[in-house]
Amino acid sequence: MGSIEMKILIKGAGDLATGIASRLYGAGHQIMMTDIAVPLTVRRLVAFSRAVYEGEAIVEDMTARLAKNQEEAEEIMEQGDIPVIVDPKAECIQWFQPDVIVDAILAKKNMGTRRTDAPYVIGLGPGFTAGKDVHAVIETMRGETLADIIYDGQPIPNTGIPGYVGGYALERLIRASAAGRMEPKAQIGDVVRKGQLLALTGGKPVYSQLDGVIRGMLQEGVQVKKGLKIGDVDPRKDKKLCYLISDKANEIGSSVVKTVEARLSDKDYAMILLAAGKSSRYGNNKLLEKLDGGQMFEHTLRKMRAFPLCTQVVVTRFEEIENAAKTQGMLVVQNTEPDLGIAHSLKLGLKRALDENPGLKGAMFIVCDQPGLTAGTFARMLEM
Fold first, then answer.
1. Can you tell me the distance from the alpha carbon of 86 to that of 90, in angstroms, rounded to the nearest whole number?
2. Using alpha carbons only, what angle is made at residue 212 by residues 207 and 213, rounded to the nearest 5 degrees?
């Protein structure tokens, strides 16, 4: 699947975003990244954000270069490198027309990314809801669920506490003691001791809280706010880790590649929702019954949003369901003869899907009265 080249825009060019770029670039896709005018990436030696103020950044086997406009960005991509463009609002979407957008800004809130910005949109970490503002979310919290792909709902909320590394969490962070100019007194790769002076911020000293190696440190001269994360001490004292993309970034990047390439293959498949039943044993139309703040049918429609590249067909005879499906851009077939049984709905749905995409390799039929089915279940079925 990696031989099919896609245009992928990564919003943000920090160390996690760079890990994602590495995996997607290695899979043969065309990458462009955006960032702000003054990046505040701590692990800057393994981040393409460095290209914004140095003009170029080399991380492992990749090179990123600053692009000032569309012409320069396209030239950099033609040369096989990755352009980084200062574009906080991602206005480049208009001319780049990406197949996929990955929001890797890690602002702990959505800064304006919409599910309609590209055929497939992915968000990293807290602030996104899969099925609402993005198609999928990647879990960024360290632990057993790190890099999980979420197709419906939200990731673990932001706790404000970093994951444990070498037995330490908050102690690893180097924070500004005052607002003002950043003046490093130690460099990335330096081995430091607890209590050692690491930097001045606004003229006030910042000391290490543990023994270790400086894995990240902001560049000299940037203006910082009091309490801002300006560096990171790694208690494992392994210098080579300062110059390599982290295991966390690689794991998240692998999940991005997995969901991107799995969803690309969705173009060959149809999802057909069967929602025309008489509900004779139930007594009335159960599909319109209230359930967890919505109607039963709405739960399944929401979960189908994670698969925008599938041909999506809804077979129904109910106006409420028809209108909701059309609002989501789904194809609708009316079944005016429910007495003919579910086989009739199957035929109607499959015919409409094949009319839309004659090259279909398969179809998934979904019943509408099983709201407990998850988008993750749909994903696993499509990936089989």
1. 9
2. 95
pTM here is: 0.88
User: Distance (Å, rounded) from C-alpha 149 to C-alpha 262?
Assistant: 12
Residues 306-357 have pLDDT tens digits of: 999 999 999 999 999 999 999 999 999 999 998 898 999 999 999 999 999 9
Contact (Cβ atoms closer than 8 angstroms) between residue 184 and residue 218? yes
HEC letters along the chain: CCCCCCEEEEECCCHHHHHHHHHHHHCCCEEEEEECCCCCCCCHHHCHHHHHHHCEEEECCEEEEEECCHHHHHHHHHCCCEEEEECCCCCCHHHHCCCEEEECCCCCCCCCCCHHHCCEEEEECCCCCECCCECEEECCCCCCCCCCEECCECCCCCCCCCCCECCECHHHEEECCCCEEEEECCCCCCEECCCCEEEEECCEEEECCCCEEEEEECCCCCEECCCCEEEEEECCCCHHHHHCCCHHHHHHHHHHHHHHHHHHHHHHEEEEEEECCCCCCCCCCHHHCEECCEEHHHHHHHHHCCCCCCEEEEEECCHHHHHHHHHCCCEEEECCCHHHCHHHHHHHHHHHHHHHCCCCCEEEEEECCCCCCCHHHHHHHHHC
* Confidence at 278, pLDDT banded by 50, 70, 90: low
Residue 184: band (very low, low, confident or very high) from pLDDT cuts 50, 70, 90 = very high
* Model pLDDT, residue 279: 59
Let me know: does 151 contact 376? Beta carbons within 8 Å. yes
